[in-house]
Design goal:
This protein has 3 domains: 64 residues; 67 residues, Ribosomal Protein L25, Chain P, CATH 2.40.240; 74 residues, Roll (Ubiquitin-like (UB roll)). It contains 4 helices and 21 strands. It has a 5-stranded mixed β-sheet with strand order 2-1-7-4-5, covered by helices on one side. It is of the alpha+beta class.
């Protein structure tokens, strides 16, 4: 008799109709009556520190669901959960939603599945130059407007600024001596001739600094070099 009751209970559980609920517009199902806020966020890929709300009919206020809050999904009607503060942006025209104020270049690359052979830019309208985004750069998505990110094949030449003059450079690195040639047309190896080379707005590997004889730095678009020459004789 006891076995029959146990079997009936098991069959009843198996016959349970899945409970449906919606998180950020996407429908989910579960056979569990209760679910926590943390579990809801994990299902929908929402960071745990983001505030999640249960939609409540007006004139009542929506209910904030904490991570440890247990929600009864067996109540009448389908429960709808949503995030009030979310940020939108696009990568190569594809829309994305982000739940934090800041995002790194590497995260944009991963979301957009951007090839390592391509460079990432923030699309700047009205004919202005697009803003190059490095992997470790932090972008504030809460600024006015929707940010649009685009990828482009890596440039085979760079525009650099040497002593306030624009130069085209076709190598990924540049040496102390090569910078001087760009600045003055030639490099004088005379020990009585001294040069000072400083740079700024460089890539991650060398943001800014001073170059010395024999040194080499990585190059990026719009990198700035200031060169001065002195005669020690």
């Amino acid at each position: 008799m006891e076995n029959k009751k146990s079997e009936a209970s098991t069959n009843a559980q198996q016959e349970k109709i899945p409970l449906k609920f919606i998180v950020e517009g996407k429908e989910y199902e579960t056979c569990e009556q209760y679910i926590t806020g943390a579990e809801l966020k994990q299902l929908a890929g929402i960071p745990l520190e983001t505030e999640l709300f249960l939609s409540i009919s007006k004139p009542y206020e929506d209910e904030l669901i904490e991570n440890d809050t247990k929600v009864n999904l067996a109540r009448p009607d389908t429960e709808y959960f949503f995030v009030k503060k979310k940020l939108h942006f696009t990568i190569n025209g594809v829309p994305f939603v982000w739940y934090k104020q800041f995002i790194r270049g590497i995260q944009i690359r991963e979301l957009g599945k951007i090839s390592p052979n391509d460079e990432l830019y923030l699309d700047i309208p009205d004919g202005w130059q697009d803003d190059f985004i490095e992997d470790d750069e932090v972008i504030d998505l809460a600024r006015p407007g929707v940010e649009h990110f685009i990828s482009k094949p890596k440039s085979k030449e760079f525009k650099i600024i040497v002593n306030a003059r624009e130069k085209i450079w076709k190598e990924p690195t540049i040496s102390f001596e090569q910078v001087i040639v760009l600045a003055f047309g030639a490099y004088d190896n005379n020990p009585n001739k001294g040069y000072t080379v400083t740079y700024s707005k460089g890539p991650k590997s060398n943001r800014e600094g001073t170059m010395v004889r024999g040194s080499v730095v990585d190059v990026k678009n719009n990198m700035i070099f200031d060169v001065t020459a002195t005669d020690k004789s």
